[in-house]
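Bump. Still looking for Small ribosomal subunit protein uS4 structure tokens.
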Amino acid sequence: MARYHGPKARVNRRLGALIYEAAGAARALERRDNPPGMHIKGRRLSNWGMASAEKQKIKHYYGLGERQLRKYYHMVAAKKGNTGEQLLTLCERRLDNVVRRAGYTKTRPQARQGIVHGHFFVNGVKVTSPSYQLRPGDVITIRPKEAIYGLYKGVCDNHAPQTPEWLTFDSESLRATMMGIPGPGDYSLPVNVDIVVEFLSR
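Sorry for the wait, here they are.
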């Protein structure tokens, strides 16, 4: 799933949400919010179908494979507290998601590409793993190179994201700091995570 290269507009329409934020995929969802294909409109999904669709939302939105999603589930399943909320918190703390939500990029695939190419540092150390888990106090900066600064500065100047309360972002120095742990009101994906947890626990 992390290497999905298919038509993103179809995924948005099939799942009924803005999963992929590319301009074309977003316009397609605005024009036609019904699922693609014939005889789909009005069809009622089974419980398994609904759980599978919600799971697909998480996988596509955060760029996870099936194995990685199940790994996250097993990491939180034995912990105290709401398993679904803890699962989404792990997803939100991924470096590629934080880079996107801070405003460095317009989409998560763009964030992953920049991370893999070594454009981002965490606490002064280059990190090339999009799944890197950030902690409160971690500081994200970009590689000190004029061309890379110009690239991300241009994105920030032309795109004003709504930075969540658990992040701070300086648009001049392009420095982001994780101030806390994202909670239930901070998740950027509208998903029924409880039925996903039930699905994964089988």
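The chain has a mean pLDDT of 87.

Edit: fixed formatting.
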